[in-house]
From TrEMBL, chain B:
The lineage of its organism: Bacteria, Pseudomonadati, Pseudomonadota, Alphaproteobacteria, Hyphomicrobiales. Gene3D superfamilies: 3.40.50.1100. Pathway: Amino-acid biosynthesis; L-tryptophan biosynthesis; L-tryptophan from chorismate: step 5/5. Residues 65-388 form the Tryptophan synthase beta chain-like PALP domain. One of its GO terms (cellular component) is cytoplasm. Its cofactor is pyridoxal 5'-phosphate. It catalyses: (1S,2R)-1-C-(indol-3-yl)glycerol 3-phosphate + L-serine = D-glyceraldehyde 3-phosphate + L-tryptophan + H2O. Tetramer of two alpha and two beta chains. This is Tryptophan synthase beta chain. PANTHER family: TRYPTOPHAN SYNTHASE, TRYPTOPHAN SYNTHASE-RELATED. It comes from Chenggangzhangella methanolivorans.
Length: 225, 405
């Protein structure tokens, strides 16, 4: 769900968001994408990720109703910490939509229970202090952070921010339950576009090739663990 | 918005959730939450610590040059033929605007918290210059984020910051102006959590910033109250201040909010006009969430943030501080607006009648004084916050008035 002012995102997602907005993307159209996908795939989980303002302006109640109807399973809304749970997290949970929380290196043991309290689906561990798609995480530090999270929750733990290659994915998959890749995929899309920023015949392949390679990395990481 | 119930006092916010009515709050990524909770705790301790306050007062006196005068504008008053107009002379502060009041307090707080690296966002460069100045004074590393568009049009302030030892980072993302500079500062803070203090320049951002900045700027209103008592033996009848984010305005207004006889007016930037491109968030925006708080914002129907326009770079922000949003809804403060053209006229009138060249930001407030003072009786005491001096605007005004330098 693109936003003009993505304060937690690095250059790749920022540029991707602006391209999408320039191309006329709206929340309404994003929900249509979900509906179209659900018409031929009832099983693959769909999580919408973005910032609160476009949802707030769309109307929280209307958004949740339409998201549920379209087949959305979960939400990741970066600028809604536990302190603002009554805005969207609790209404989403009551609709049966998971609200997936980010835990970060600055989330200490004292704060962790509050972060995990209303989290559903999985926990998204942010591997670095920073924005998406810039720094490469220290995989030893990530592994011990995942162990720490697992002492506090039975939910699966997925790790993201700065995961760019199959090797990164393998290193993370050794300890975590999932690997989140965003910027690298958005960047693969960008590199496949034509001069006017439109998709080319190579766009889908650029993405699926990278996804296949990342998935193979995850399987290798799992097998080695 | 529907009117909210009138409280017993207008001065008790923010509440424990950091809200003023529905406005304010802490809409930030999890990485920053522990940092703003630390800041809240450190500030709560500092503001009640006599040694912290004594240190701040000493620097206010000897470094900033406070108190700033409350000056009776005799010729302007004669010219307008109505209310008796007083100027609160914030433009006489070191660095040339009210911005330094806030920066001094935040830098002392950063020192107290053991932070060695200071980051700030700036639009016109006044907050950046004030931050670079205090960092030079206390030997701290200073990084200022400034939209690439603003870097190009505010070259003198960019040079000042560099002279003072700061690193100026031109922000290339988004629209390359103040809101993008703030995004980039937040991205830096999220990346450098251990040693960095984010010195926000206005009464916006996540709680506790709107409260901290307001408290630090309230010295303006506190002094005004005492000075008016000394000059006239009573409270003023009306207050005027320009509002971008709104820090000079809240600083003047806050000590008077419970003095119900005092009429209070904030002046937004109407740019080319309220029906055209402008930066008037209350007049032309709606409540939404950006930069950590809920407030009035300029946006499109899909909740995407729009660029404002004002002749004054310091008012060119698509939002307004959350306390102003609340004061508007409860009706305690009336928000007016002045166009680019009205500000340019006021800039010239004050220069010629009083020998004071105001900042283009402050000229918006003066513009509404030119309109309202003639309609008031001669015993009406009107105070306008002269929040900054106009030296920085001289090249831009020379171009506009057809006298390029």
């Amino acid at each position: 769900m693109p936003f003009t002012d993505p304060m937690a995102d690095g250059p790749a997602i920022q540029a991707g968001g602006l391209r999408a907005l320039k191309g006329g993307e709206t929340l309404e159209k994003t929900l249509h994408l979900v509906r179209d996908f659900r018409a031929h795939d009832a099983d693959t989980p769909i999580i919408l990720m973005g910032y609160y303002n476009p949802i707030y302006i769309f109307g929280v109640e209307r958004f949740l109703a339409e998201a549920k109807d379209a087949g959305v399973d979960g939400l990741i809304v970066v600028d809604l910490p536990p302190e603002e749970d009554d805005e969207l997290c609790l209404p989403a949970l009551s609709q049966g939509i998971a609200f997936i929380r980010l835990a970060t290196p600055t989330t200490d043991d004292a704060r962790l229970p509050a972060v995990l309290k209303n989290t559903a689906g999985f926990v998204y561990y942010v591997s670095v202090t920073g924005v998406t798609g810039v720094a490469t995480p220290d995989f030893n530090v990530v592994a011990s952070a995942v162990s720490r999270l697992k002492r506090h929750t039975s939910l699966p733990v997925a790790v993201g921010f700065g995961v760019k290659t199959p090797e990164h994915a393998a290193a993370i998959a050794a300890g975590a339950d999932g690997v989140v890749v965003g910027s690298a995929l958005v960047e693969a899309v960008r590199q496949s576009l034509d001069g006017e920023g439109r998709a080319t015949p190579g766009t889908v392949k650029a993405v699926t090739d990278l996804v296949s390679a990342l998935a193979a990395g995850v399987r290798r990481g799992r097998a080695a663990a | 918005m529907t009117a909210q119930p009138e409280p017993n006092s207008f001065r008790t916010g923010a509440d424990e959730r950091g809200r003023f009515g529905i406005y304010g709050g802490r809409f930030v990524a999890e990485t920053l939450m522990p940092l703003i909770l630390d800041l809240e705790k450190a500030y709560a301790e500092a503001k009640d610590d006599p040694s912290f306050l004594a240190e701040m007062r000493a620097h206010q006196t000897h470094y900033i040059g406070r108190p700033s005068p409350l000056y009776f504008a005799e010729r302007l008053t004669e010219h307008l033929g109505g209310a008796k107009v007083y100027l609160k002379r914030e433009e006489l502060n070191h660095t040339g605007s009210h911005k330094v009041n806030n920066v001094l307090g935040q830098i002392l707080l950063a020192r107290r918290m053991g932070k060695k690296r200071i980051i700030a966002e700036t639009g016109a460069g006044q907050h950046g210059v004030a931050t670079a100045t205090l960092c030079a004074r206390f030997g701290l590393e200073c990084v200022v984020f400034m939209g690439a568009v603003d870097v190009a049009r505010q070259a003198p302030n960019v040079f000042r910051m560099k002279m003072l030892g700061a690193t100026v980072v031109p922000v290339q993302s988004g629209a390359k102006t103040l809101k993008d500079a703030m995004n980039e500062a937040l991205r830096d803070w999220v990346t450098n959590v251990a040693d960095t203090f984010y010195c926000i320049g206005t009464v916006a951002g996540p709680h506790p910033y709107p409260t901290i900045v307001r408290d630090l700027q309230s010295v303006i209103g506190d002094e005004t109250k005492a000075q008016m008592q000394e000059a006239e033996g009573r409270l003023p009848d009306s207050l005027f201040a320009c509002v971008g984010g709104g820090s000079n305005a809240i600083g003047l207004f806050h000590p008077f909010l419970d003095d119900r006889s005092v009429e209070i007016f904030g002046v937004e930037a109407a740019g080319f006009g309220l029906d055209k491109l402008n930066a008037a968030s209350i007049a032309g925006g709606q409540p939404g969430v950006l930069h950590g708080n809920r407030t009035y914002l300029l946006m499109d129907k899909d909740g995407q943030i729009e660029e404002g326009h004002s002749i004054s770079a310091g008012l060119d922000y698509p939002g307004i501080g959350p306390e102003h949003a609340w004061l508007n809804d409860v009706g305690r403060v009336t928000y007016l607006s002045a166009t680019d053209e009205e500000a340019v006229e006021a800039f010239q009138v004050l220069s010629k009648l009083e020998g004071i060249i105001p900042a283009l930001e402050s000229a918006h407030a003066i513009a509404k004084v030119l309109e309202h003072a003639p309609k008031r009786p001669k015993d009406h005491l009107m105070v306008v916050n002269l929040s900054g001096r106009g030296d920085k605007d001289v090249p831009q005004m020379a171009d506009r008035l057809g006298m390029p330098l």
